[in-house]
Design brief:
- The protein is an alpha+beta fold.
- Helix content is 29%, strand content 25%.
- It has 1 helix and 9 strands.
- Strands 3-2-1-5-6 form a 5-stranded antiparallel β-sheet, covered by helices on one side. A 4-stranded antiparallel β-sheet has the order 4-7-8-9, with helices on one face.
- A hairpin with a 2-residue loop joins strand 7 and strand 8.
- It is elongated.
Length: 182
């Protein structure tokens, strides 16, 4: 009779125990990795929307706005809308050209907004020259959007000419901005 091949029950239990220990050590790291990726994705999505707003303002030679989707116009984590404000009222409507809509971000991603005009609604507007501006006048408007998730921070800084750059305050110089909301 041939000896049977395979694992004995004690050997199988030892392998399962080792796998459980390794999984227990790895799960917290996987959570941190997931939060970091969600923050990078949110930052890249918003940075792309800012680039779209600026490019469309130049192409249309008119004002294009990027506005949070919540009713108060203050919570970027609820998503955003990029639109050509044809009727000049500062909110997307039937007379406006909706260029892009982004849905809500994953739970836990929060924002802080610090621009030259700091009162809600928190918007980013570009004029036909591609400069960041006030939605109701041509005055320059610049500042910083800070994104927070799981203790990590990413920022998008827009200068007075309208150019945007993304930065990480943990490794980049000149990446200051508002603190995480309390």
């Amino acid at each position: 009779m041939k000896p049977q091949r395979g694992f004995t029950l004690p050997e199988l239990l030892i392998v399962i125990a080792i796998a459980a220990i390794l999984l227990g050590v790895a799960v917290p790291e996987l959570g941190a990795l997931l939060r970091a990726q969600q923050l990078r994705t949110a930052t890249n999505d918003l940075f792309s929307a800012i680039g779209l707003a600026r490019a469309q303002a130049i192409a249309r030679n008119g004002r294009v706005l990027l506005l949070p989707r919540d009713a108060a116009g203050a919570d970027w984590s609820q998503g955003w809308t990029v639109f050509a404000d044809r009727d000049g009222d500062g909110v997307p409507g039937p007379k406006d050209d909706i260029l892009a809509v982004h849905e809500a971000l994953p739970p836990g991603v929060t924002f802080a907004f610090s621009f030259t005009t700091s009162a809600a609604p928190y918007y980013i507007a570009y004029n036909g020259a591609g400069r960041s501006c006030n939605a109701s006048s041509g005055a320059a408007r610049w500042g910083t959007l800070s994104l927070f998730h799981g203790g990590a921070i990413r920022r998008i800084k827009i200068n007075m000419l309208g150019r945007a750059r993304a930065c990480n305050p943990a490794r980049d110089d000149n990446c200051d901005g508002p603190e995480a909301p309390g």
